[in-house]
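Dear colleagues,

I hope this message finds you well. In preparation for our joint manuscript, I am sending the NAD(P)-dependent oxidoreductase (Flavimaribacter sediminis) sequence together with its predicted structure, so that both groups work from identical material. I would be grateful if you could confirm receipt.
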Amino acid sequence: MKVVVTGAAGFVGSQVGRVAIERGHDVVGVDRRKSDGSLPFSIETADITDRNRMIDVVGDSNAVIHCAALVGPAPATADPAAATEINVLGALAMLEAARRNNCRIVNLSTATLYGRRSDAAPLAETDPADPVGIYDATKFMSETLCDSYRKSFGVDVSSFRTGFVYGRRHSTGDYFIGRMLSGVTRIREPGRDHPCDFTYVKDLALGLVQAAEAPELPEPVYNVTGGVARTRGELAGIVSQYFPKADIELKPGVDPARHLRGPCILDRARRDFGYAPAFNLEAGVADWIAAEQQADPL
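The corresponding structure tokens are as follows:
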């Protein structure tokens, strides 16, 4: 199968490309950044909002795994115009490419669309979306476009909601490990008891490739997360086991800057393409740190 991966030089996209190669597929990456040579596939340097270019790049591909995005509430709030252009118009360009070339789109979305849920109850895809901020709004618009192309033109597209994705090459300090590796060992933050449905990047990447491989995807939306709520305090405790100098102190309670929600229910993904996370939080942290120690390119 020929697979196009957008955002292929990024955190999730690079891992998706590697998994697809390992599973025997031909991969073409798309990214605004040039490859640094560490990836096992070629990258077309292009802007995903360029519809004509995307139509050409997709060509005779069987599937597009669309990971390119301006990710996260803070960057989107800082530049709403850029977030809308990349997340919404980028999705539109990929949908047009899929429509013209008759291929599947696996559209990476976000579980932040469920909004703030004070009861922290498990979330199914049938629960109503409640986008809160700019980032949520852009991903909701992209999902709406996907569903409209599915209904109006018969495009084979589904959206995949994930969240709290962690692993090597993650560019922020949300999961403590990056800061520990850079020598920042003293951390003081709120949110010790904040529940998070942590998703290890390798689980997510495999799930997205499995979705691309599936004979059919009958649902417009799927949850692809770890499926279990763990707290940031638990994460801090696990990370501290690997860094003797770690001094992580989180204030009790939830983090007001983060969405409060429960874990995602994974029944649809399990049924339709065999999604089954292999890494719990302990295993994911261990694998991430082992990769750092081995200087694995990804």
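For the figure legend, we might mention the following. The CA atoms of residues 2 and 26 lie 5 Å apart. The chain has one domain: 2-294.

With kind regards,
E.M.
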